[in-house]
Amino acid sequence: ENNLSLGTELRRMQIATPDAQLADQLKQAEQDLISITRAKEIDIDSFLDSGLISIPSTGEIQIGLKL
């Protein structure tokens, strides 16, 4: 939708899940996620903040981006 290239640097990525155990696992992998996504900042939470570009998902995880 936004025609992002794979090399696009993201200002912020937020990953939201209501599953506390999954959230803990994602937090432990935060540095790896930053490395592979080129995000300057990654937040793990139980819900997405408003104002982010929401990536469509049908699973347990929601992803929001700030370019």
Strand content: 25-35%
Biggest beta-sheet profile: 4 strands, mixed
The number of helical runs is 2
Radius of gyration: 12 Å
Average pLDDT number: 92
Low-confidence stretches: none
Distance between the termini: 13 Å
Helix and strand string, N-terminal first? EHHEEE
State the shape: globular
User: Fraction of residues in helices?
Assistant: 25-40%
Any idea how many domains? 1
Structural class: alpha+beta
| Total beta-strand segments | 4
Strand order of the largest sheet: 2-1-4-3
Notes on the structure:
- It is a single chain.
- This protein is α+β, with helices and mostly antiparallel strands.
- The chain has one domain (12-66).
- Helix content is 25%, strand content 25%.
- The protein is built from two helices and four strands.
- The protein has a four-stranded mixed beta sheet, with helices on one face.
- The radius of gyration is 12 Å and the shape is globular.
- The relative contact order is 0.33.
- The mean pLDDT is 92.
Layout of secondary structure:
Elements: E1 12-16, H1 20-28, H2 30-37, E2 42-45, E3 53-55, E4 62-66
Parallel strand pairs: 1-2
Antiparallel strand pairs: 1-4, 3-4
